[in-house]
Amino acid sequence: MSDRRIAHLDMDAFYASVELLRYPELRGQPLVIGGRSVPAPQRQADGSLRCARLRDYAGRGVITTATYEARALGVGSAMGLMKAAQLAPDALLLPVDFDAYRHYSRLFKAAVREIVPQIEDRGIDEIYLDLSTHEEDSASLARRLKDSVAAATGLRCSIAIAPNKLLAKIGSDLDKPDGLTLLGMDDLPTRIWPLPVRKINGIGPKADQKLATLGIRSIGELAAADEHWLCGHFGQHYGRWLHAAAHGLDEHPVVTHSEPKSVSRETTFARDLHARNDRTELGQLFTALCERVAADLVRKGVMACTIGIKLRYADFSSVTRDITLAEATTDARMIRRAAGECLKRVPLEQRLRLLGVRASHLSPLAEPMQPELALD
């Protein structure tokens, strides 16, 4: 039996919870964060707060997160706001404030590091911890981590401790909000196998759909499937992984440091844009993306040798192009020039719904250089 103890700590409805610190009178109401050009709440003369509502939104925006009251109405992350408005028209709608979310992200991670110094950072609101060498019992350690996060941020989190990352990730979602979940291999039949297969991190929509067509909807049904049969339908590598994951097996370590492989920024337009008719607006957005990529490179202490673009057309088809520089750079003008060269190599007759800029083949930041373009 493995002695590993892996924790997954996930902040509860993180963006919405940060907003509720700022606007505590909104607690208990269905609240959605997301969208473009959403007005911030306005304090009225009588002290009340005036907020936008989902029914008033028009555009292509998607939900970034929602409070549990909003989720109870059927809306959730990544859902289009126009669709969500049909389900919960009276839900309150607030704009995204990434500066505030990054601030609280730093606070909760610093609080955790005071107890467990090495963490695997999985994003703005979740981390993995390897607790295998800690002598404190799991329940006490989990409570101490949760209390530390609450004291530092005023926010709640859910934490699960399990023999591996796969089970810890599933477990942190079982008892939300403010959950504390301890899982062992003995808990598989009662707590894991009844869950839908999509709860396994690594089973996406396409695999979920294919499994459903094969009569497999729960993790337990997947665990009961023959490994060779799964390999026949999904290939050797993925079939073996599906079989192992359904039995709660995962040997992936907690990785406390990794080098970035690429830096990218992209934006989906509020309306489809045309390269000729909307040239000025597109040019401004294109330049801004390049400037943000350049700033991200400097912040991460790296420079890029390859610059690429991504376009998604109105019909949802996509195209990418890239170009390799003679020398690595962090210079926004050079990135803009290289990305512009890529843009010349794609058809621009269709209207566009998304534009992205990507920097890859990264190396540690050195002295600023003035590279020459070398078309790949």
From TrEMBL:
<keyword id="KW-0515">Mutator protein</keyword>
<keyword id="KW-0234">DNA repair</keyword>
<dbReference type="GO" id="GO:0009432">
    <property type="term" value="P:SOS response"/>
</dbReference>
<dbReference type="GO" id="GO:0003887">
    <property type="term" value="F:DNA-directed DNA polymerase activity"/>
</dbReference>
<keyword id="KW-0479">Metal-binding</keyword>
<keyword id="KW-0238">DNA-binding</keyword>
<dbReference type="GO" id="GO:0042276">
    <property type="term" value="P:error-prone translesion synthesis"/>
</dbReference>
<dbReference type="GO" id="GO:0006281">
    <property type="term" value="P:DNA repair"/>
</dbReference>
<comment type="subunit">
    <text>Monomer.</text>
</comment>
<feature type="binding site">
    <location>
        <position position="125"/>
    </location>
    <ligand>
        <name>Mg(2+)</name>
    </ligand>
</feature>
<feature type="site" description="Substrate discrimination">
    <location>
        <position position="15"/>
    </location>
</feature>
<dbReference type="InterPro" id="IPR017961">
    <property type="entry name" value="DNA_pol_Y-fam_little_finger"/>
</dbReference>
<keyword id="KW-0227">DNA damage</keyword>
<keyword id="KW-0963">Cytoplasm</keyword>
<dbReference type="GO" id="GO:0000287">
    <property type="term" value="F:magnesium ion binding"/>
</dbReference>
<dbReference type="InterPro" id="IPR001126">
    <property type="entry name" value="UmuC"/>
</dbReference>
<dbReference type="GO" id="GO:0003684">
    <property type="term" value="F:damaged DNA binding"/>
</dbReference>
<comment type="function">
    <text>Poorly processive, error-prone DNA polymerase involved in untargeted mutagenesis. Copies undamaged DNA at stalled replication forks, which arise in vivo from mismatched or misaligned primer ends. These misaligned primers can be extended by PolIV. Exhibits no 3'-5' exonuclease (proofreading) activity. May be involved in translesional synthesis, in conjunction with the beta clamp from PolIII.</text>
</comment>
<dbReference type="Pfam" id="PF11798">
    <property type="entry name" value="IMS_HHH"/>
</dbReference>
<comment type="similarity">
    <text>Belongs to the DNA polymerase type-Y family.</text>
</comment>
<dbReference type="InterPro" id="IPR024728">
    <property type="entry name" value="PolY_HhH_motif"/>
</dbReference>
<dbReference type="InterPro" id="IPR043502">
    <property type="entry name" value="DNA/RNA_pol_sf"/>
</dbReference>
<dbReference type="InterPro" id="IPR022880">
    <property type="entry name" value="DNApol_IV"/>
</dbReference>
<keyword id="KW-0460">Magnesium</keyword>
<dbReference type="InterPro" id="IPR043128">
    <property type="entry name" value="Rev_trsase/Diguanyl_cyclase"/>
</dbReference>
<dbReference type="InterPro" id="IPR050116">
    <property type="entry name" value="DNA_polymerase-Y"/>
</dbReference>
<protein>
    <recommendedName>
        <fullName>DNA polymerase IV</fullName>
        <ecNumber>2.7.7.7</ecNumber>
    </recommendedName>
</protein>
<keyword id="KW-0548">Nucleotidyltransferase</keyword>
<keyword id="KW-0235">DNA replication</keyword>
<keyword id="KW-0239">DNA-directed DNA polymerase</keyword>
<feature type="binding site">
    <location>
        <position position="10"/>
    </location>
    <ligand>
        <name>Mg(2+)</name>
    </ligand>
</feature>
<dbReference type="Pfam" id="PF00817">
    <property type="entry name" value="IMS"/>
</dbReference>
<feature type="active site">
    <location>
        <position position="126"/>
    </location>
</feature>
<dbReference type="GO" id="GO:0005829">
    <property type="term" value="C:cytosol"/>
</dbReference>
<feature type="domain" description="UmuC">
    <location>
        <begin position="6"/>
        <end position="204"/>
    </location>
</feature>
<dbReference type="Pfam" id="PF11799">
    <property type="entry name" value="IMS_C"/>
</dbReference>
<keyword id="KW-0808">Transferase</keyword>
<dbReference type="GO" id="GO:0006261">
    <property type="term" value="P:DNA-templated DNA replication"/>
</dbReference>
<dbReference type="InterPro" id="IPR036775">
    <property type="entry name" value="DNA_pol_Y-fam_lit_finger_sf"/>
</dbReference>
